Known about the structure:
39% of the residues lie in helices and 21% in strands. The chain has helices at residues 18-27, 53-62, 72-76, 80-94, 111-117, 119-122, and strands at 7-10, 30-32, 39-46, 49-52, 99-103, 127-130. The radius of gyration is 14 Å and the shape is globular.
Amino acid sequence: xxxxxxxxLHIGGPKCGSSSIQNHLSMNPTFTSDxxxxxxxxxxxxxxxxxxxxxxxxxARLSPEQYLASDPARLLDMDETTMRTCRDQIxxxxxxxxxxxxxxxxxxxxxxxFNRLDLLERxxxxxxxxx
Length: 131
């Protein structure tokens, strides 16, 4: 991660292991780098809010899929009030230098909309994108 990024945005493709990654992250939502210098927190953007920590793990355990991933449709349809609320949550979660990790297969088809709507910037996300 470079200093100007506060987020890792995982964009998985169909049938390439995204569900396994999302399951592992859902069951282990906080982790550090091997040297302990960097901390990470897996979060999911669902229902117009950021879900993290024990709440995320519990929801994942209760779901048939056994993971929780971000919901791309809700992100594209957020009103300004919801956007502000999510941005405030993101600011709070990254204040101490923690890097957020978000994952969703559906985002691979939404890149142009993300750019056009300036969604990531409006949420305060400065992502490093991984596939």
